[in-house]
Design brief:
Helices cover about 60% and strands about 0% of the residues. About 10% of the residues are buried. The chain is mainly alpha-helical and about 150 residues long.
Length: about 150
């Protein structure tokens, strides 16, 4: 499709730019935000809305690391997309405006993710180049492959 082969060694960021598509993380985050806006606009009597705003009433939380809930993932996604948590309901009430916020937020998130991936790749290549300069080449004489017993 893009006429790339596995030996071309093109980074994922470049492939996504050539294909004009978002990363899977960005696609999932966009769907999560849009669904959350849909649930916020529901009447309060609906079960998805009650579950979204509900708290843990019974049972105990497990000892140690807790399982991530949908709310926890949603808060992280809102933070990545620069959407203030205290204005979430007000912003989600306007369907058209919420869709625009989701789209621009996802594009912002994708740009930031691409920049960090490019920076990590650049640092990794610089580190490899520095290591190549430090290590001297050692010439080892060839070892006989077969030993003949007379």
């Amino acid at each position: 499709m893009l006429r790339l082969r596995s030996w071309d060694k093109v980074p994922h960021v470049e492939i996504r730019h050539r294909a004009h598509c978002l990363s899977m993380e960005a696609i999932i985050a966009e769907r999560q935000l849009r669904w959350t806006g849909h649930v916020i606009r529901m009447p309060e009597s609906r079960l998805p809305r009650r579950v979204l705003y509900g708290e843990l009433k019974e049972d105990r939380r497990s000892v140690g690391g807790q399982y991530k809930r949908f709310k926890d993932c949603l808060k992280a996604t809102l933070k990545k997309n620069a959407v203030p948590l205290d204005q979430l309901e007000k912003l989600a009430e306007n369907r058209k405006g919420w869709r625009e916020i989701c789209t621009t937020g996802i594009l912002f998130m994708q740009e930031t993710q691409d920049k960090t991936e490019d920076e990590r790749r650049r640092r990794r290549h610089e580190h490899a180049a520095r290591n190549r300069e430090k290590t001297p080449l050692i010439c080892v004489p060839p070892v006989a492959a077969y030993v003949y017993h007379a």
